[in-house]
């Protein structure tokens, strides 16, 4: 009987562990003063919103039951007291610090010294130049401190660090109009007799030339350099686990010069090449190979990512995005790394928009008020997220093991201070509750 009970408990434990972990990332992005969609700061700080746990008790229980976490921008830590951060832990919520610097064209050592120690390279003040935090008076000054010092001067160690995308943002690419010899006036041409190689040279744009010629390998090594600084910073405390965001966009193919060479060789005719380019008819999927190489590199230094989150554009060529998602999921499963999706609004900054599913295509309804006259823009986002998640479940991309980050990086939902209360339809907490109660729990993906 005793052995039978042990077996039952073991099976129950395995079932619990198989469920995806859910991260909640409200868009309290007032600390990101450099990032202003539509020219405005996004909402307020955590101090007067999500630090008030009485405003979102149901969501906290959903997260706690499912080993969930809360995402906080690394730049927000300087606005928070140590006690405020510890309160999240006392609520049994892990804290993810979202690192903003990986999109910047500096090597991994420089980025690590900047974010963990507040040391800008040379005589620059990158916190002011890049992040627009200049002589702050309402937060901890990150200069000489880095992001991980609270408003009241305590050193803070997050449970996890989330890395923004580094590739393909910092690889060189080809201006397409110049590549195909097209100007704004279709009657005119740049240099009609240039060879393919000369056209590539003329069209080349490099956002980060100091990263060198072996670009993808160098950008991958920056993760290693950064992590060595991270381990040095937190060597006397618990070293944070890492999460990675990974682009699922057609831009990978458009920035893959070797793939474009193959495409041009196959379609030397301009109109055929244009069609193949625009509609990605011959994808190389080198991005999935890069993902595999990066994860193996990180695991080789004993820092396997806890999860790799797919940052998706599903609306341009949905079939392409689904193909990449399935390929990446397969790769990560073989590497024993969790597969995740960033569940964000595909409408981005459109004011009158709902994401809908037509057959197997994800589309934007840009006249949503006509179809949904009673929905606010916040509620449109809520409906959009639920439509996308149901679609990904129906496409077998999302299953019980998938990690899901319910988050927003855009203007919506607009919710200041106590307006974040979870009873308000369209608010981020209300949206997350709807996702749990209408989708995840009924599908047995969550408890």
Structural features, described:
With 447 residues, this protein is of the alpha/beta class. The chain has 2 domains: 21-172 and 211-349 and 397-440, TIM Barrel (Alpha-Beta Barrel), CATH 3.20.20; 173-206, no CATH class. The protein is 38% helix and 13% strand. It has 16 helices and 12 strands. It has helices spanning 2-18, 57-65, 82-90, 108-117, 126-129, 176-179, 196-203, 215-233, 251-254, 257-266, 270-278, 286-300, 318-334, 368-371, 377-394, 428-440; strands spanning 22-25, 69-73, 94-99, 160-163, 173-174, 204-205, 241-248, 307-312, 338-343, 354-358, 361-365, 403-407. The strands form 3 sheets. It has an 8-stranded parallel barrel. A two-stranded antiparallel sheet has the order 5-6. Strands 10-11 form a two-stranded antiparallel sheet. The two termini are 27 Å apart. The model is unreliable at 4-18 (pLDDT under 50).
